[in-house]
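User: Here's a structure from my thesis project, written as structure tokens. My advisor, Dr. K., wants to see whether a designed sequence matches the one we expressed. Can you design one independently, without my sequence as a hint?
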């Protein structure tokens, strides 16, 4: 980490630091969300509703794969940030090297198992006889690039953890742009159809992987990766897992919830699956901005917590929540107004349009609370409060969502599926508020010198 990066984390004004750290992550996340949306658009241009539904079926599987990368990306990255805040660079190198080594091994095992059991996995996710052939042909190719997907997720977070958010963003954006360019070439020029979209994804992931590795081996990284620094230590893994497991569970529950939505929605036909896939990818534009901002907030929170700069940390929390809530309100209003024209761009099927518009409006009712929930969820990860992070992670997509998904359709059919998530979000907000009251009091009573028992308000 260069001196200028340390200065951002430690001395820049909070608004300035948040912009510098979050903007690259936001741009990167938005580009990736745009890629997902454009990828869906190109597949929809094949004119096969089952193909569009197939990528919706496969979507939760690859959310889960990315979640595994988050164990060592978020878990290792947060640990690295804390060590840098404590000026312990040697331990930061050990954590980063161990995280990357482990995720490479895990990705190889995942590729082998996924390739062998792909049909059974897709059946569990809800693929029927119309969707299965498309889902299998797409997934088999994607599985070849799992090692790139997982390691990229880990390296991206390790680079961001040391404050080099711009480099992380540039690499992710480069891969996404290459994917967007290759999609129509492979699908339509080469005539590969749905498989072309999969090949484009794997190739772009491989290019991003190469750029990440180049960054580390050319010594441009403050944290040094080395096989000599790999330490198979219970202490290291426990610290990584304390934060990484809640991050994994949070993302894995997203995967499970999307998979369950697909399984419940397939009862109402392929159009319902296609509509939900379209709306999820479009609304991810808003959610990715919130997540990207939170990713920029995380190293700032972890570093200042490690450095015992609690007043600065509290200011970062307040500023982040105000900014994200303001954005969420504006985004929701716009989406509600233009919902129908957006869905119509992806499908002319009247049933798909009708379901998609309703999903957009349901999403917007509770999206305005997403910033508050996300910031406190990330805060607990950043400061090592693994139990709080785990409970919040489980609540939104597990504790509140899954029961809603099973109960509401009994009474409200498809509408029950659509409104299950907003209802779960509302209860998650209540839980986040209760947790926020507790942690704010705790932070304000952390000693910052020998003569001060509590930090000022």
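Assistant: Designed independently from the structure alone:
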């Amino acid at each position: 980490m260069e001196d200028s990066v340390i200065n951002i984390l430690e001395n820049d004004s909070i608004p300035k630091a948040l912009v510098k750290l979050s903007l690259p992550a936001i741009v990167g996340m938005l580009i990736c969300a745009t890629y997902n949306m454009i990828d869906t658009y190109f597949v929809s241009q094949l004119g096969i509703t089952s193909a569009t539904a197939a990528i919706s079926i496969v979507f939760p599987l690859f959310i889960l794969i990315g979640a595994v990368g988050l164990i060592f990306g978020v878990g290792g990255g947060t640990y690295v940030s804390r060590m840098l805040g404590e000026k312990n660079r040697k331990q930061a190198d050990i954590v980063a090297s161990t995280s990357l080594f482990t995720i490479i091994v895990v990705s190889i095992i995942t590729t082998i198992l996924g390739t062998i059991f792909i049909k059974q996995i897709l059946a569990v996710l809800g693929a029927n006889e119309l969707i299965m052939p498309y889902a299998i042909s797409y997934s088999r190719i994607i599985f070849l690039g799992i090692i790139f997907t997982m390691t990229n997720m880990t390296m991206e977070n390790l680079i961001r953890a040391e404050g080099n958010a711009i480099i992380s963003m540039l690499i992710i954006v480069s891969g996404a742009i290459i994917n967007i360019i290759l999609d129509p070439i492979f699908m339509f020029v080469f005539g590969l159809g749905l498989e072309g979209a999969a090949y484009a994804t794997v190739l772009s992931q491989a290019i991003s992987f190469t750029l990440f590795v180049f960054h580390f081996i050319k010594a441009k990284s403050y944290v040094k990766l080395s096989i000599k620094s790999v330490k198979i230590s219970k202490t290291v893994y426990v610290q990584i897992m304390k934060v990484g497991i809640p991050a994994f569970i949070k993302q894995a529950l997203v995967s499970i919830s999307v998979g369950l939505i697909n399984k419940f929605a397939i009862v109402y036909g392929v159009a319902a699956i296609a509509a939900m896939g379209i709306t999820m990818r479009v609304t991810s534009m808003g959610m990715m901005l919130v997540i990207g901002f939170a990713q920029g907030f995380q190293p700032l929170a972890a570093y200042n917590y490690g450095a015992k700069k609690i007043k600065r940390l509290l200011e970062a929390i307040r500023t982040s929540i105000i900014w994200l809530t303001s954005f969420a309100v504006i985004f929701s209003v716009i989406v509600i107004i233009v919902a129908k024209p957006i869905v119509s761009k992806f499908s002319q099927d009247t049933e798909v349009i009708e379901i998609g518009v309703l999903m957009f409006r349901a999403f917007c009712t509770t999206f305005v609370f997403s910033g508050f929930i996300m910031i406190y969820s990330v805060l607990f990860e950043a400061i090592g409060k693994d139990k709080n992070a785990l409970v919040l992670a489980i609540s939104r997509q597990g504790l509140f969502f899954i029961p809603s998904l099973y109960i509401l359709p009994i009474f409200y059919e498809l509408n029950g599926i659509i409104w299950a998530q907003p209802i779960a979000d509302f209860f998650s907000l209540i839980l986040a508020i209760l947790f926020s009251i507790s942690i704010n009091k705790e932070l304000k009573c952390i000693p910052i010198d020998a003569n001060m028992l509590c930090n000022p308000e």
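When you compare it with your expressed construct, this may help: Residues 3-444 form one domain.
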